[in-house]
């Protein structure tokens, strides 16, 4: 586990150099610090384990995690001092072992597998997103300024069904078992230029959804979907997030526990089961996301 975290730390440093956050020479200086801290804590559920995250610059140190946050999300780390984050704060934004978090600790899975379609008639254009059943409220709340609305199953027309099923080669049950959310409809301009109107809808989609959307690592090209990542509440602030960041911080927590307090991961306990699941699944996913961010635009590089 310790080797996994330090591998991620080295990848983070390399990524920051490639994105010109640090110079290559700076990596050999003592001014570069990983920017995380975990004090000794009582034998407790893994969800309650706390990590302190320091700002990008603190006491003459350049801190890796806060800079990594900026590279991944595009936003600056907003806190000026050390900020405590518990594993429970970020577990719902983990991707690979979400069912384990839910079954063992009751953590709600925050990430939504989404499919989308740009649709049109001769004079109207709009954007639709298909998300898991009962998840539409979360999507609508995060795009409230766009005015998206959920379409009841009874209101889904035969044309809606056929276009969705043919465009994405979906089985019929996927459309009926999910929630369909529709953007406001744009009518073509006075000159009836459909392409101009289409570009406006695409611009809207990028504006209101782009900051929450990331590629899926296991999406089949013939059956595509992407991941909607809601904001996360940290120390009273709503932050953009990414499952890579959850995985990175959890790997640090597990590495620290294994080194200083291995009794927290006692065999047969939920903590132990989660740690085993994380090492076998999430570590690979974090690695894949790291490799993706070394390319521009991001490319999915498959690993074994």
Folded structure, characterized:
The protein has 304 residues and is an alpha+beta fold. It has two domains: 2-109 and 230-293, no CATH class; 112-228, no CATH class. The chain is 40% helix and 19% strand. It contains ten helices and 15 strands. The protein has helices spanning 2-18, 64-73, 87-91, 98-105, 136-142, 158-168, 172-177, 194-209, 243-260, 270-293, and strands at residues 32-33, 36-37, 50-53, 57-58, 61-63, 83-86, 112-120, 124-132, 149-151, 178-182, 186-187, 213-215, 226-228, 232-234, 237-239. The strands form four sheets. Strands 7, 8, 9, 10, 11, 12 and 13 form a seven-stranded antiparallel beta sheet that branches. The chain has a three-stranded mixed beta sheet with strand order 1-5-4. The longest helix has 24 residues, at 270-293. The protein is globular and about 65 Å long. The protein starts with a helix and ends in an 11-residue tail after the last helix. The mean pLDDT is 88.
């Amino acid at each position: 586990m310790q080797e996994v975290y330090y591998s991620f730390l080295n990848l983070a440093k390399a990524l920051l150099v490639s994105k010109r956050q640090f110079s290559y020479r700076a990596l050999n200086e003592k001014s570069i610090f990983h920017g995380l801290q975990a004090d000794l804590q009582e034998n407790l559920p893994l969800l309650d384990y706390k990590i302190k995250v320091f700002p990008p610059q603190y006491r003459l140190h350049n801190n890796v995690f806060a800079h990594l946050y900026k590279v991944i999300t595009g936003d600056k780390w907003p806190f000026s001092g050390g900020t405590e984050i518990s594993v429970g704060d970020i577990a719902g934004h983990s991707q690979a072992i979400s069912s384990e978090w839910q079954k063992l600790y009751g953590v709600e899975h925050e990430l939504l597998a989404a499919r989308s379609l740009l649709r049109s008639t001769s004079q109207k254009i709009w954007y639709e997103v298909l998300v898991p059943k009962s998840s539409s409220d979360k999507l609508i709340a995060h795009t409230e300024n766009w005015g998206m609305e959920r379409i009841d199953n009874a209101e889904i027309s035969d044309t809606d069904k056929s276009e969705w099923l043919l465009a994405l080669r979906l089985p019929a049950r996927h459309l009926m078992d999910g929630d369909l959310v529709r953007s406001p409809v744009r009518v073509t301009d006075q000159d009836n230029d459909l392409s101009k109107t289409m570009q406006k809808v695409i611009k809207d989609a990028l504006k209101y959804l782009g900051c929450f959307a990331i590629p899926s690592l296991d999406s089949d090209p013939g059956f595509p979907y992407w991941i909607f990542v809601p904001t996360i509440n940290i120390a009273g602030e709503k932050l953009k997030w990414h499952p890579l960041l959850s995985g990175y911080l959890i790997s640090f927590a597990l590495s620290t526990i294994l080194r200083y307090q291995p009794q927290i991961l006692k065999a047969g306990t939920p903590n132990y089961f989660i740690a085993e699941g994380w090492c076998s699944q999430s570590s690979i996913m974090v690695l894949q996301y790291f490799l993706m961010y070394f390319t521009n635009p991001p490319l999915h590089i498959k690993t074994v």
